[in-house]
Amino acid sequence: MKYIVLMLAYLFSGCSSNYPHLATVDKVDLNRYLGTWYEIARYDHVFERGCVNVSATYSLKKNGKIQVVNRCETSEGKQKEAIGSAYAVDDSNSKLKVTFFWPFYGNYWIIKLDSNYTYALIGDPSRKYLWILSRTKKLDEDVKAKLLSSLPALGYTQDKLIWTPQK
Q1: How many H helices and E strands in the chain?
Q2: Residue 122 host element (H or E)
Q3: Do 85 and 101 contact (CB within 8 A), yes or no?
Q4: How confident is the model at residue 17 (pLDDT cuts 50, 70, 90)?
Q5: Which of 52, 69, 77, 141 could form an S-S bond across to 57 if both were Cys, CB 3.0 to 4.6 Å?
Q6: What is the spatial distance between Cα 58 and Cα 38, in angstroms, rounded to a whole number?
Q7: Half-sphere CA count of 17, side-chain side, radius 13 A
Q8: How do beta strands 104-113 and 66-73 pair?
Q9: Residue 73: pLDDT above 60?
Q10: How far apart are CA 21 and CA 66, in angstroms?
């Protein structure tokens, strides 16, 4: 029951917002986006609390949806895995709906994406969720500074970021 309440809270958290429209990238080539991404930083949320070595792997399913496999290691050294599904809400492929507990979906909006698909900034309109992702376990300091400097204009603050240890 606890998880149902948490998922409902997550689902409806984006229904109203005091923030202006959150722009996404113009176009995402899903084939280039597929594969493994490493979490560099995130806003705190219950789903990943205490996790290190966080990664997300995206693959195309036969039905055209995207399989999402999130993995992390807990502070006790246990491996956790969550398998979900996602779909693009429009032809830009920059706004996805993701579920790990059907029928509840959350927003996964790609708001910054390197032209070489080496890093991404993911958020949602409520500004309660934010992830910095990279194809490698470490992000170049110049890229990190560029992403951090873009946060205020997007309605985010860097003081809420949790930097994810990656081994």
Answers
A1: 3, 9
A2: strand 119-123
A3: no
A4: low
A5: 69
A6: 12
A7: 16
A8: unpaired
A9: yes
A10: 25
* Residue whose structure tokens are 């059907």: 102
Q: Which two tokens stand for residue 85?
A: 């599904």
**Three-state DSSP class for 101?**
strand
Sign of the four-CA dihedral 100, 103, 66, 94: negative
Report the candidate in 104, 92, 82 with the shortest Cα–Cα distance to residue 33. 92
Residues 6+ apart with CB under 8 A from 134: 37, 38, 40, 118, 119, 120
Distance of CA 26 to the CA centre of its chain: 17
- For residue 1, is pLDDT > 70? no
Mean pLDDT over each residue of the chain, to the nearest integer:
90
Residue 58 has pLDDT above 60, yes or no: yes
Place of tokens 């219950």: 46
Q: Amino acid identity, residue 134?
A: S
Indicate left, alpha or beta for 117 from its phi (over 0: left) and psi (-120 to 50: alpha): left
CB 101 within 8 Å of CB 3: yes
Q: What is the dihedral of CA 48, 145, 92, 71, to 10 degrees?
A: -20
The residue type of 30 is: L
pLDDT at 15: 44
Look at residues 87, 82, 35, 39 and name the one whose alpha carbon lies nearest to residue 58: 35
